[in-house]
Amino acid sequence: MKFSVQQYLFLLLQGLHQANSHYGFPYTVVNGVVSKRWEYIRATTSFAPNYDYSGPQSMCGFNATTPLFPVKTVQVAAGSTIGFAASYMADNRLEEQDFSDFDPAFKMYHDGPATAYLSKAPGELNDYKGDGEWFKIAVVPASDGLHWDYRSDIKMNIMNFTIPAATPPGKYLFRAEHLNVVNGATYKATEMFINCAHIEVTGSGAGTPGPVTHFPGAFNAKDSGIWLPNGLAKPTQPMDELKNWQGAGPKVWKG
Questions:
Q1: Res. 111: pLDDT tops 50
Q2: 87: closest CA among 42, 26, 175?
Q3: The pTM is what?
Q4: How many helices (H) and strands (E) does the chain have?
Q5: 44: number of CA atoms within 13 Å, CB side?
Q6: Hey, how many other C-beta atoms are within 10 angstroms of the C-beta on 97?
Q7: How do the domains of the chain map onto residue ranges?
Q8: CATH T-level assignment (fold) for domain 23-243
Q9: Which residue(s) pair with 31 in the sheet?
Q10: CB-based burial, 29-41: b 16+ in 10 Å, e otherwise
Q11: Which of 72, 169, 174, 184 could form a disulfide with 231 if both were Cys (CB 3.0 to 4.6 A apart)?
């Protein structure tokens, strides 16, 4: 089949649009310092949204059960904040060991809530498959019950989460998740974007995190934190369901 120049350009632009239509979080922000790309984050092979909420990709993203190449570990003090900075994946494939700088001009353009989980590694993080216990440490809902706190109209590019002060010291896999609630009334329409960082929590925390869960299996498509049949992406008036959103899976451990 032959294509005209106009048809070829149209197909090319379509491909570029699909490749750039989503994003992930390949950078960490600790003490105001933005990392290099994939420096402390497990690389994923795609930034496309995940719809398999109970499958292996729901843990750290596509093909990130183990690191695709060695990942460094960043130290974060218990009680402090770690950020996950957003970026696009230009060609929708693994940018292997691409340590480029963060582009502050890039903004998150999906509206939705966020969650954060921790899982303590039994040994080195590069060897850890995330098959241990996970506990939830933070949620970011719609504080006013009307607008998600992370949304496109305020041009944000970093999700921030606070590690509970009582978190025991050690090496952890840190899971950051952002959901795009396309239409809460549509089953399996919510888009899930996930990345995991390698962190070492420091301090003297002596808490007992819980309740715990496992990935995959922490939740499924019918959980109210994912499927919001009574709450649309952009409600016309404040809704308690959005204001009090806690996500799927276990309750938040605050230490």
A1: yes
A2: 26
A3: 0.89
A4: 3, 9
A5: 29
A6: 13
A7: 23-243
A8: Coagulation Factor XIII; Chain A, domain 1 (2.70.50)
A9: none
A10: bbeeebbbbbbbb
A11: 184
